[in-house]
Amino acid sequence: MRRRTVNGPGASIDAVTTTRRRHPDGALPPNGAPVTNELPAAAGTAANQITAGSVASRLCVRCGDRERPEPLAPARRNPSQDASHTTRRGGNELMRHHNTKRRSRPRVPRTGILAAAACAIMLAAVPAGASAAHERFQELRITPTDPVPVFSLWPVTAGFAPTSVTGGSDNNVWYTEGGMAAGVGRLTFAGRNDGRAGLVKDFTHGIQDRYGLLDITAGPDGNLWATGYGGEIFRVTPQGVVSHQSVAPYGGLQGITAGPDGKLWFAAGTGPDAAFDPAVGQITTHGAVKEFGTGIAPRSTPVDITEADGDLWFTEFFSGRIGRITPQGLVSEFQLLPETGQATFAGSGLFSIAADAGYLWVTDVNNDSVYRILPGECSTPRAGTPGGCDNVVDIGLANNAAGVTGAPGSVVVGPDGDVWATYGSALVRMTPQGQSTFFPQANASGGGGALPSSQSIGSGPFGTLWYPEGDGLGEVSFCSTVLCGSQLTQKPDSAELSGSLRRASSIGILIQRDGHGRLEPVGHVPLGHHPAGPFSVRWTLRVGDRRLPAGRYAITLRALNNHRQVIDKAAPVTTSLGG
Fold this sequence. Notes:
The protein is mainly β. Helix content is 2%, strand content 44%. An eight-stranded antiparallel sheet has the order 1-2-6-36-37-40-5-4, with no helix packed on it. Strand 16 (253-258) and strand 17 (264-268) form a beta hairpin.
């Protein structure tokens, strides 16, 4: 899933387009369901172990979560047993959820033979080269007026400590797990997984990385992709089906991000078993891997990677450099700090990197700094010599009013346009002008311990930020008095409004037609009363008993009190609807 900023009359919105691509025969099929001619191995054998050979031969697939194999698509339910029902009201459909009893299922034995056979039966139903159709929807971000950061703590499974976090294409929160076992967790935020916010599910089958998972990102295919420090990349579908690809047998995979070319790009630093020449790698959504090491300083240890201006930029921890690599694999390096060796952590400590509309932001864990860099002011390297970057701004963080101790770790550009980083037991927000604000309350558990620093803050659904905190996940939502971040998802015959509320309230939308810059009132649509937390409402594109004619409209989300008076509203978004 890729985001881009779109400016329309009266609003600045983020358009997100999700697609699923076709795949060639023999490549990694979508949704973790490759077709194989081999029978599952018996329990206790070396089934699914990675061996040398082609990319296809090194692909390993296993099904299900810790309890049972999951189907690739939800099974059709009896309406009387469904956990949700729909109520029509005033031209919209309110999605309501409640607990009901469900028909019990026979428990699947957890023996290796039967579990593997169940997986093989499911996979055999997908013909070679088949590709499920995937509709293209546009998502418009709705931003509350004058938002302030609001901090919340969501518990997860005890002992499965989160290490990194991202938002998925299903509007849920996904995170890598350490602690007792390596795995991937899913926190239901506003998706359709039983419809209950805060529901946690852990997926560990098929994830066997002896050193743990480090980073996770949403891929262009709608799946989640995670790096294992032991040298593997894992793909997890929104249903929890896991497949993995051995990339670096020597280990050392760290940051991963979606690139501008529809592929995933990762940083390969120094592995846990042996030193090796560092590299930046590329993996397609079908599992084909390329690594690029030419032009990267030996033993420099690439750590994090991000996309900016059509290229990929990465940090090198020990060399004091940042690097740029084009989608074709051409590498350039730029010296920011004096080089240091791996024998000491003094000197350079370039760690995490993020990009906004104009700058690169790089954290330096050894010098307590965050650097703001203009990519256009980084000079072209000469043969054998790295280039440099002019007008680098050092945002020193050591002297801060909050009295927080620590060092900057992971960094991300927030939905508020500012830059956020982990810092000891707090979070720090930095403006593009270099002003910084610390938030010690980010450590909501009260333990006072440092937040994880390794790839540990990420963007979530509806303009939220998420970070690991002990056996839980911290959320930063940006809210006004009632409304928090939301989005409008356009579909052929309807639209879905999803988001969250700071407190219980009735909500509705004001519809105005955009007549060449002049907004003409059309009407308003009530969307029901909702408790605090996530909500989701389907709108049938009707105002009263009339369907909207095709045209451009400004949509304003509003919160109302019991007297139907407007008590809060978001900035309007403008888009084409109706017809």
